[in-house]
Specification:
Number of strands: 14
Shape: globular
Mean pLDDT: 80
CATH superfamily of the largest domain: Toll/interleukin-1 receptor homology (TIR) domain
CATH class of the largest domain: Alpha Beta
Low-confidence stretches: 142-178
Number of helices: 7
Length: 281
């Protein structure tokens, strides 16, 4: 499997070192910024490349991570490149910090299932984490191969690529992207009382999602939309009106045939909301 990018705060170094030892003992290739960046390399470019090329990103969560400048940036890169994120709960953090960075981190992780080291023995947490990382590795497409050198290697590479693509299409059938184009709707009851029939219109171009998603009945343009391995993510901006600040809604959806199971969370700190959208409307 590709390397696991480990995002963490340096203040959690003792736990991280222990975790890396167990993951490497299990045969995983773990990438961290402490000793994987060659001397003289531009730090930000190296981090960006490491996230882009990873098989998954595991983020160690703690009060220190919630205060970190770089952990949210690394999560944003993982979202940008469509890399799976596996949250590792080292210490409870969302109840101990009310900073802007902590709220952003909570927003980025909305709807993801944590691997809990805080409430179970370390060995049990390692077992759960290995299962989660291997599950993501099985679900992720194989990394793109570099250009073949010459001659029969090139021909063999093309043949293998065609065979692999054919096998993928036969085993998977229609891709998730083929299944969400068009109109969807859901009856949504919001936590503060309003009820609305929300309508969605999705347009797919490869893995990129565009279109509209309504909020309280008003359509909003989809931004940063992506569909990958049946997981749909996008954001919409809500301009609340004169005297009220704008905010963002983040949608995470799981496509299941003719329904999409959504988790919606805004960046104002509202409780996450779950609902299901059906085709049509």
């Amino acid at each position: 499997m590709s390397h696991v990018f480990l995002s963490y705060s340096r203040r959690d170094q003792a736990f991280v070192d222990r975790l890396i030892a167990e993951l490497e003992r299990a045969g995983l290739d773990v990438w961290i910024d402490r000793d994987d960046i060659p001397g003289g390399a531009e730090w930000e470019a190296t981090i960006t490349r490491a996230v882009k090329e990873c098989g998954s990103l595991a983020v160690v969560l703690s009060p220190a991570a919630a205060a970190s400048e770089y952990v949210p940036k690394e999560l944003s890169l993982a979202d940008k490149f469509g890399r799976p994120i596996v949250p590792v709960l080292y210490q409870p953090w969302d109840e101990t910090s009310d900073s802007e960075r902590a709220r952003r981190l909570d927003f980025q992780l909305a709807g993801l299932q944590y691997v809990d080291f805080a409430r179970q023995p370390f060995a049990a947490g390692v077992s759960d984490l290995l299962r989660a990382l291997r599950r993501e590795a099985r679900a992720a497409p194989a990394p793109a191969a570099g250009p073949p050198r010459r001659g029969w290697l090139a021909a063999a590479g093309v043949a293998l690529g065609v065979a692999a693509l054919a096998a993928f299409l036969l085993t998977r059938g229609r891709t998730p992207a083929d299944g969400i184009d068009g109109a969807w709707q859901s009856d949504v009851v919001y936590a503060w009382g309003p009820h609305a029939t929300e309508r969605f219109h999705f347009v797919l171009d490869g893995e990129t999602v565009s279109g509209t998603a309504s909020f309280l009945g008003a359509p909003r343009g989809i931004q940063d939309g992506r569909l990958k391995d049946g997981r749909l993510t996008f954001r919409t901006r809500v301009d609340a009106g004169p005297g009220s600040p704008q905010f963002w809604n983040a949608y995470r959806g799981r496509v299941d045939g003719d329904v999409i199971h959504f988790l919606l969370q805004d960046d104002r700190g509202s409780p996450p909301l779950q609902f299901t959208a059906e085709r049509g409307g």
